[in-house]
Amino acid sequence: MGSVNHPLAGFCRDCLTLQHSAVRRCHACGSPRLLHHDELYSLSLAHIDCDAFYAAVEKRDNPDLRDKPLIIGGGKRGVVSTACYIARIHGVRSAMPMFKALEACPQAVVIKPDMEKYVRVGREIRQLMLELTPMVEPISIDEAFLDLKGTERLHRDPPARVLARFARRIEDEIGITISIGLSYCKFLAKVASDFEKPRGFSIIGEKEALSFLRDKSVTLIWGVGKAFAATLQADGIRTIGQLQEMEEAALMRVYGTMGQRLYRLSRGMDVRRVEPEGEMKSVSSETTFNTDLSSANDLVPILRSLSEKVSRRLKAGGIAGRTVVLKLKSQDFKSRTRNRQLSDPSQLADRIFRTGLQLLEKELDGTKFRLIGIGVSDLEDADKADPPDLVDNQATKRAVAEGAIDRLRTKYGNKAVETGYTFGTGRTERPPGNGKG
What we know:
Elements: E1 10-12, E2 18-19, E3 34-35, E4 45-50, H1 53-61, E5 70-72, E6 82-83, H2 85-89, H3 98-104, E7 109-111, H4 115-130, E8 136-140, E9 143-147, H5 152-155, H6 159-174, E10 178-183, H7 186-193, E11 201-203, H8 209-214, H9 226-234, H10 240-244, H11 248-255, H12 257-266, E12 282-293, H13 296-317, E13 319-330, E14 335-346, H14 349-361, E15 369-381, H15 393-412
Parallel strand pairs: 5-7, 10-11
Antiparallel strand pairs: 1-2, 1-3, 4-9, 4-10, 5-6, 8-9, 12-15, 13-14, 13-15
Helix pairs in contact: 11-12, 13-14
């Protein structure tokens, strides 16, 4: 291992052959994808991000789409969930309104999101991550932090090589690609993973952190969005290097606790650890309508359909939620969020729907809505979920019936059995473009 750990002993990301000099191509396979870095074998904290995840899964499942611009989204009033890199070359971006995306790339193929499939693939990738280390902190279904410190004896390789081998495994077994950022802290690992997408592997070491950050925009720092960046710019601060020249007390005096974050992250100081218990905080499903809706007749069937989607994800993941959350967005883009805590955690569509319905009924005041969503938070294992209701016998009967429906749908598909709420409906809704937990 001594030769491996020598800083000049880089390696090829494709065949993993050691490279004992700063050559441009692998002397074994000819690949230009080589890794060399002074801290290559001393860093162990990584951020892994799937490349254009939804689009990559669809291209994997339909090879005819491989060389075509692909947008995952739908409906003229919807937004882009994600776009493949071909579409991005034409200017398509995530969260862009669909009509603008199609103006930028009219030849694009548009596919509505299939969140159940994406969650399933994300879970497969998560399981492979856990084979590397138990220290996995998911951020969403397609990205996570990993801490591989102390795993060198287990894998008989330094973390950098373990991660490179993992990237190859994802391509071979899952059929999509990932990008990796390797550093000594979360902040810079996340920054590094965005560098060379797709199929990137970038490294930011501790020794270079200050110089690396110096000329970068303040927007690189977590929490500095457009509004706060404008505030900083008005105060004459545009680069991280300017923050590096300021005292912590002065920044806190002007910007409060955010000033402390600016001071620390501008210097590459981030002591947050990878927290494996930071699994999903919520499970939700939402949809944007093609036309604004205000009546119970229109909204209730959609609420039921979304509740069933959330329920399927909870059951598949073996989890349940104790708080039901309803989300509405009016035609003027103002959001309403309402929640109610349950007596016991639940994963039943019936219970999620009926609780959401009680919340929805209070909001039906004639307002026209362009979006509705339902979800659950305060997640826990499903072993204590949905005990028999000793007061409401009908609730228990509905739970039994739902179990029977689930078994039929597992065997014959989700449309094999429909409830009275959802039968023949769905023409006014667009399938959810945001099902992240």
